[in-house]
Amino acid sequence: GWPFFTWQTEVMQRDFHADRFIGEAEDGDIITLPSRTFKDWGFYTQLLYGFRYGWEAGLRYEYAGGSGHSINGRQNDGFRDDRHRFSPLLAWRPSEFSRIRLQYNFDHASHLRGNAHSVWLGLEWLYGAHAAHNF
C-alpha cells in the first residue's frame, strides 16, 4: 500500500576465464595478455518512496568493478573500468500490470572523457495469470 519506503540492495559477482591474447595496441606495439580468470563484482542499492497511490520516487546508486589487466590499461577499458552511477527516478503505476519509469543517470568512470549524463524512459507490463494479492 501507499505511502511506503522500500530499501533494496543486490550484490553480483562473476568469474570468467579469458584465453591468452596477442594483439596490437593503438601505438603499434604488440601486446600479449596471459590466460587468466577475471573476478568482477558490483552492486546496487536503492531507496524508493511511494508518496501517493501509484506514484513512487527514488534514488539509486550502482557500482561495478573487477580485477585483471586490459589492453591500454583497465582504467581505459569500458568493459573493465570501475564505474559509479547515481540515478534519481520517478515511476507511475497506472495499474498492477504496468509501470512507467523516468530515470536520470549520472555516470562516472575513468575511461569516460568527463562524466556521462543520460535520461531513460522505461515501460513495463505484465500479462498472464499470477497469484492474487492486494495492489
Walkthrough of the structure:
The protein is mostly beta strands. It contains no helices and eight strands. Strands 1-4-5-6-7-8 form a six-stranded antiparallel sheet, with no helix packed on it. The chain has a two-stranded antiparallel ribbon with strand order 2-3. The model has no long low-confidence stretch (mean pLDDT 86).
Task: Provide the descriptors you would attach to this structure in a database record.
single chain, 135 residues, mainly beta, six-stranded antiparallel β-sheet, two-stranded antiparallel sheet, 0% helix, 64% strand, elongated
Structural class: mainly beta
Q: Percent of residues in beta strands?
A: over 45%
Write down how many β-strands occur, each being a DSSP E stretch of 2 or more residues: 8
Order of helices and strands: EEEEEEEE
Provide the residue-averaged pLDDT: 86
Unreliable runs, pLDDT <50, ≥5 residues?
none
Summarize the biggest pleated sheet. 6 strands, antiparallel
Distance between the amino and carboxyl termini: 7 Å
How many individual helices?
Answer: 0
Q: What is Rg? A: 20 Å
Shape: elongated
| Helix share, percent | under 10%
In spatial order, strands of the major sheet run 1-4-5-6-7-8
At a glance:
The chain has strands at 4-18, 21-24, 30-33, 36-52, 55-66, 83-95, 98-109, 116-125.
Detail the topology: elements first, then pairings.
Blueprint: E1 4-18, E2 21-24, E3 30-33, E4 36-52, E5 55-66, E6 83-95, E7 98-109, E8 116-125
